Amino acid sequence: MLKIQAAQIAVTPFQQNCTLIWDAETNRGAVVDPGGDAPRILAALDRAGFTVDRILLTHGHLDHAGGAMALKLALEAKQASVVPIEGPHRDDAFLLSGIADQAAQYGLDGMANATPDRWLEEGDAVCIAGQAFAVLHCPGHAPGHVVFVSKELGFAVVGDVLFRGSIGRTDFPYGDHAALIAAIKEKLLPLGDEMRFLCGHGPGSTFGEERRSNPFLR
């Protein structure tokens, strides 16, 4: 398990964590939530030195998915192989199809609508760096938000569902605070206090630390 490595690059003015996860032995891995700044992500991939098998999206917000298509095209040209986009749940289709318009409203360049090659649902699995990660559907912040969990590695990528000391926003027209809290308490926290996670903004934590100290979960 020590061969699995991860790194995060803060992208876009929203400082969203784009996560790279790879196997240091096989030099293959995945990119999670390339929200924008594709050239910076490509430079980070060059430094890490691994081949990207797939791009994964936790949800459809522009700061998580706005750079997915540009990264896909660049990687396919560079690697001469198909790099599929997988996720999120299809309930976020309306968000993915509105990225370009929303980016224009914010005055952001280099963002485009994203079209997944595979929608994900609860109970699916995705392969990241040779490891199977379970897919959990965790709506509330976004209707189609998914989380990637490896019990074997004791590690999860949770997007904007849960943060260190906070939770994802639910003040959008489609937000659902009760659904978000239920997903955290019923799907994430039961995975165990030792489970480490990386999130979409800011530093990671463990489920145990958030269960004990996160004011939104008391």
Question: What does the model show?
Answer:
By secondary structure, the chain is α+β, with helices and mostly antiparallel strands. It has one domain: Ribonuclease Z/Hydroxyacylglutathione hydrolase-like (Metallo-beta-lactamase, Chain A). It contains seven helices and 13 strands. It has a six-stranded mixed beta sheet with strand order 6-7-8-9-12-13. The protein has a five-stranded mixed beta sheet with strand order 1-2-3-4-5, with helices on one face. A hairpin with a 2-residue loop joins strand 10 and strand 11. It is globular and about 50 Å long.
Overview in brief:
With 218 residues, this protein is α+β, with helices and mostly antiparallel strands. Helix content is 27%, strand content 26%. The model has no long low-confidence stretch (mean pLDDT 97).
- What are the secondary-structure elements, in order, as H or E? EEEHEHHEHHEEEEEEHEEH
What form results from the Cα inertia axes? globular
Please identify the oligomeric state: single chain
CATH topology: Metallo-beta-lactamase, Chain A
Strand order of the largest sheet: 6-7-8-9-12-13
CATH architecture: 4-Layer Sandwich
- For the termini, the CA-CA separation is 33 Å
Mean pLDDT: 97
Figure out the total of helices: 7
**Radius of gyration, rounded?**
16 Å
> For this structure, what is the CATH homologous superfamily?
Ribonuclease Z/Hydroxyacylglutathione hydrolase-like
**Overall number of structural domains:** 1
